[in-house]
Amino acid sequence: MPFFSYPYYFFQYIFKREISRFFLSISIRRLAVGMVLIFEPIYLYFYFDKSLSLTILFFGLIHGLYGLIVVFGGKIMAKIGLKHAMLFSHFFFFGYYLCLFFLSSQANNIAVELSLLLPLAMILRVIGMMFFWPAYHTDFVRFSEKNHRGLEVGKLNVAVLIPVIISPLIGGWVLAAFGYPILFTIVLVTLFASTIPLFLSKEVHEVYTDSYQEAWARIFKKENKNISLAFAANGMEVGISIYLWPLFMFILAIEYTIMGGIISFATAMVAIFSLYIGKISDTSYRFQLLKIGSFLTSLAWIIKYFVISPFTAFLAHTLYRIFKASAFIPFQSILYDKAFLKGAEADEFIIYREIILNVSRGILFVILAGVFLVTPKINIAFILAALFSLGFMLLGKSSKPKL
């Protein structure tokens, strides 16, 4: 199919049925979160007086706690529906960013911050994640087309990447010109706007039947070993990318606007290739693409280890995002296929994935917090990310999960 014909089919897909409202809400949300995502760990790095250990421990506790209680998110999702779960999540994320906003205004009262704002921020974010992510992934499994799962993931990737192309640039400019309080204010307003399309969306209900013990028991089943390891590798690699890579760029003294530009350009390159990678993921080459993409992503992390300047950061991150897309899209396609095969139990599989992904990330971050007490060499984590990237291949080797 010619390149110029893709926009027609893409937007025809986006603006039909309930999908239009889902994608519109997600796109606005990504615009909001994208403005602050790469600057959020830097903000907390300043707050913790440039302590890498405390900064990474903060995020590790959030993800670890979420992984421990996400089972209850599945039960709530079953009672109130997927769309309402995503809708309600925005209010908790709103509260989280509001807490971060007030952290700077409470700078002279450390006791108040430590006793109230930080724990409150963590709790609000954990609850927001508990409402949002299981519903988000389950909803996508339900409306995506079985025979074109790779292309559907590619389309989803484009839909969420388009706002992310401009959001880091906007966030970097606002931060450089006005500071964090104004940036958080804009994020809060945009995040609230993302809830509007969900008010118009038709509700979908799931039946989540797992007990807490049953949800955890499947993680340790021998038949699920490769799947569990693949999810753990994915969770730890993504965590390093989201939180430690921005901190590394900041420590290199890369300006906010340049940092935003690096992220935006790399994201734009990924958006261009996502649909093509998605189409390849629907062929018999899906597993080969996953293997190649995993190896290239690992190579990109090794390249990142040697970054020493804004220009080398720009080249390394652009390569990383392109290589990661070649692994991420087949990885997600296989993930959603496995969930789809479970039929009515797709939500149980999604919760299983969320537990592993976040608990493993939380454990890794606690370990790294201890490592950073001994050495502040942050790019040590990039070597670990290179190893974790190779673990993506295990998802292609796994059989149907035993639930």
Secondary-structure element order, as H and E? HHHHHHHHHHHHHHHHH
The N- and C-terminal alpha carbons lie at a distance of: 40 Å
CATH architecture: Up-down Bundle
Number of distinct helices: 17
* Shape, per Cα inertia axes: globular
Name of the CATH first level: Mainly Alpha
Strand content: under 5%
Helix content: over 70%
Q: How would you name the CATH homologous superfamily?
A: MFS general substrate transporter like domains
Radius of gyration: 20 Å
Query: Largest beta sheet, briefly?
Result: none
Mean pLDDT across all amino acids: 83
Unreliable spans are: 1-16, 107-113
Overall strand count: 0
CATH topology value: Growth Hormone, Chain: A
Instruction: Quickly give the structural class.
Output: mainly alpha
Number of spatially distinct domains: 1
